[in-house]
Amino acid sequence: MGKTFKVLAIPYQIWLYILVFVPLIAMVLIAVSNYDSSVPLNQINISLNHWSILVQRQNMIAFRNSVVFAVLTTLISFVLGYFAAYHIFQSKFKNKFIILTIVILPMWSNLILRVDALNNVFSQNNIISSILGFSPFGNITGKPIAILIGLVFTYLPFMILPVYTALEKIDYALQEAALDLGLTPFKKFWKVIFPLSIKGVVTGSIMVFLPTLAGFAIPKILGKGNFLFIGNVIENKLLSSTIFYNHGSLLAVVILVFILGSILLLTRFDKEGETLL
Amino acid sequence: MNKKPLIELINVTKSYDGEKVVDNLNLTIYENEFVTLLGPSGCGKTTTLRMIGGFVQPDDGQIIINGKIFNDLPPYARPIHTVFQRYALFPHLNVLENVAFGLRNRNQEYLINFFGQSEIDRLYKEAYPTHEKKNARALHKIIQTMIDKAAQDALALVKLTGFEQRKIDQISGGQQQRVALARAIVNKPQILLLDEPLAALDLKLRQNMQYELKEMQTKLGITFIFVTHDQEEAMTMSDRIVVMRNGLIQQLGTPKSIYNEPVNRYVANFIGETNIFPGTYVKKDLVNFLGVDFKSQGYTFENNEPVDVVIRPEDFDVVDIEKAKLIGKVTFSLFKGVHNELDVDINGVKVMVNTYETYEVGQSIGLSVDPYEIHMMKVENNG
Amino acid sequence: MTNEKQYPRATLQEYGYRDFSKFEKPLTVLKHILFFVIFLMLYLSIIVIAIQSVNSSVRTSEFLSITFDWYPNILQEEDLMTAIRNTFIVSFVATSIATIAGTFFAVGLYSLEKKKRQKIMLLNNVPMLNADIVTGFSLMLMFRLLMPIFPNIFGLFTLVMAHLFFTFPYVVLSVMPKLKETDPNLMDAALDLGIKPYKALIKVVIPAIKAGIFSGMLLALTMSIDDFVISYFNTGAGFDNLSIWIYGVIGRRNLTPSVYAFSTLLTLFTLAGLMGYTFIQHSKKGKKGELK
Fold first, then answer.
1. Which residues on B lie below 8 Å from C16 (Cβ)?
2. Which of B12, B64, B78, B105 to mutate to test the interface with C (most CBs of C within 10 A)?
3. Closest residue of B to C289, CA-based?
């Protein structure tokens, strides 16, 4: 491209260091401090007293919930999302832009509004039942299945897009070569197409797993508060009368460890971030 | 020649967007022959190849292989394998696994048939002398080992022994091409389709591969159907050449016959630089062109019928001006190593002549040509 | 040439394969049904919102009759209008800056050596992969620590900063692949013709990558308009965007249906934009076909 433009990257580097690096460091430091809203800034010092919250029963349940739901959501999204992406891929739809937009379109509506709409449909008397006379989902509001459905279909686009991108990148000649060598279409999928789309699967899985793990709005609304996620715990730390920055930071750092692990995993499979979109 | 027909294309037609890409093609291909489909881009040669392979369905007509109609049979069921133009090697597998791919994915029944029950029994006894009855897992292992060996043998055939564990992005284009070849022939197909496989190689490599491919075809005894736009390539390797244009066969014959006896202008020009003069077939064994009567042989036309006379540049002989039937002035001379390419002006007509000796521009030289080197074609409107 | 000979058809069986073609049709139908169900579930909430927007009853559990009154009523709801206005201000400002600056950043990154670029890309991907809550929280902490210097920092400024934080990566990641696809000689050709580097960049490279810029902008706008968590933690002085406002109001169950109307309008608007874009693309293609 030209060495003259290298300089354009410098402001971005600075930006990334300041806004990505520094806040994370700040958060890690505060996680090992005594800082909460009752402590003035000049009295912050190191303290690990609050680390006991990590083993509080309530918080451990919250961790468990977050992880279990995140794993389940990812698995289900993988199955449904790969199927949907593959279906679109096979349908000879030429314009990727249309697909990108159709899959993203629901995300243009407000998340809270959408989740609330789902919650509505999951209740006994809801807008659908008043039109059709029966409730297609029964009365699952507040139950784990409601949270699961909500999570899966909110984040499904994040699985569909990377998988579709990875599938599109597969040279069509490879499919012909597989058929030429005697493989039936069924075998061709498992031996050629699927292995070559793993990049997209990994990306998609991470893009579903992480927000599910750290989310709090969806479980709160669809679970009617019955299930505590780690995100809810952090939110509560901030809404209480004394804002426990150090508690919140600590819990956030735990989530961060998961995130960093995922990023490293992703870079192993997809170095240039091709399937991230 | 009592060769058995292996493939018969009967009235095969294919259109894209209303345009006929393959137009009522009729072609018979025999066992153990090297056939080349030759023509420029868009002439239908690749489409024809792909129809034989099963990747494209003909709109009309029949593709008969082994005496059966193959039109509806999917590519995976056909005893045909392809070497693709850009090789299509699987990036997630190493060289050995690429070559072994076809065999690895066959069911056991096929593999037993492929390798032969007796050979399998022999190897099984060798490896497991104590087994009374065949153990399923052990049998599977034996077969896999046999596949490994077959793949290694195929790699040896293409002179790539030692490359088994390499990743395909670690090998050169020429090596990739050979892996693609090995991958196809290891399965012992009846027919091998080659879709311009040498197009991406540099000249020296391409020439080497041409010889190797020809040798391989003779050795393996399978029918090679080769597609190219390079006439030199076609001439080097083929038993027969099919010259195509706009979906139609222009001429079908041995390299020699196509070179020496082209049936129309298109074929004559396609197969190398040549002189085409308008002339008249005066009577039997006498033809008139460039204002001079020449003795000819071997052609029959109507008396005084206009014909196109084809004489290859190398077929002109330079003779003493006194004895010459044609006299002209050299207007251009290019040293080509093996010969000189001259343009000679004879009565205003530019004649191409190849000579071993060098002649100066401006020099007058005398030319003559032997009767059996005068070739004639029917005059066409759009030859 | 007449060929009277009748040839038998080759079968899959004789070459060792089983014929599953009778399963093909029902399987395909099943696939289409499953796909439709997934699609329906994806859009279920949108459909419900659309229904609510024409529901004459304020109570969301029953549908009385169809009315379009909630649509013009959007303009009457002051709180809603403020929230909408705030959302658009923040999103458009952030998206504009992100798109323009992000494109240049991408060019700069593309010019770097592979190793250095990959290191920076690692940092670039963090905002996209990081959980909203961690991002929101950490940014908030940092801004909070700056409060002694800038006491009124929380508000529009922090909100825009926070949005830039997660929109830059989307633009960069959309533009980069397009940069990679462009002919590397393009730039050289321009320089060869005597055009100065930055002018060449704008006149030659930018048009070549405009598809990437456009999709980056679209993604940035999408992420920004609907953002909740990060905005939740990084706003102040009562500067609520739409998400925060809804989250606050939804607990109190007196949500005006005009919100649904607005959301549906937004969806339809985007859909129309998509149709328009596709239509333009197709008519361009049509013209090309005729020229042939």
1. 77, 106-107, 109-110
2. B64
3. B17
Q: Which residues contact A273 (CB under 8 A, 6 or more apart)?
A: C121, C124, C125, C173, C176
Q: Which domains does chain C have, with CATH numbers?
A: 29-73 (no CATH), 77-253 (1.10.3720.10)
Q: Give the number of residues written for chain B.
A: 383
- Distance to chain A for B377, nearest Cα, Å: 42
Record: contact A182-B88, CB cut-off 8 A: no
Architecture of domain B273-378: Beta Barrel (2.40)
The full set of domain ranges for chain A reads 1-26, 59-239+253-276
First CA to last CA distance, chain B: 32
Residues of chain B positioned with their CB less than 8 A from the CB of C8: 67-69
Q: Which residue has the tokens 């968590």?
A: C229
pLDDT over 90 (residue B147): yes
- Tell me which of A168-177, A266-275, C159-168 is least confident: A266-275
Residue C151 neighbours by CB under 8 Å, 6+ apart? none
The answer to whether the Cβ–Cβ distance between A176 and B81 falls below 8 Å is: no
Give this complex's ipTM. 0.84
Share of chain B above pLDDT 90, in %: 65
Query: Is A59-239+253-276 in CATH node 1.10.3720.10?
Result: yes
Statement: residue A29 has pLDDT above 90: no
Tell me which of A142-151, B123-132, C158-167, C181-190 is least confident.
Answer: C181-190
Distance, CA of A263 to chain centre: 13
Q: Per-residue pLDDT averaged across A235-263, rounded?
A: 80
pTM of the full structure: 0.84
Question: How far C290 CA lies from chain B's nearest CA (Å)?
Answer: 13
Residues of chain B with CATH 3.40.50.300: 1-79+189-272
Q: How far is CA B307 from CA B279, B289, C175, in A?
A: 5, 9, 63
For range C214-229, the mean pLDDT = 86
Q: Best interface-test mutation with A: which of C53, C84, C137, C176 has the largest number of A CBs within 10 A?
A: C137
**If one looks up domain B1-79+189-272 in CATH, what number appears?**
3.40.50.300
User: Cβ separation of B74 and C1 shorter than 8 Å?
Assistant: no
Residue B369, beta-bridge partner list: B316
Structure tokens, A11: 């402001």
Contacts of A106 in chain C (CB under 8 A): 42-43, 45-46
In angstroms, the CA A209 to CA B97 distance is 34
Q: How confident is the model at residue C291 (pLDDT cuts 50, 70, 90)?
A: very low
Q: Taking residues C256-275, what's their average pLDDT?
A: 85
Q: Say if residue C171's pLDDT is above 50.
A: yes
Interface test with A, best of B76, B176, B183 (most A CBs within 10 A): B76
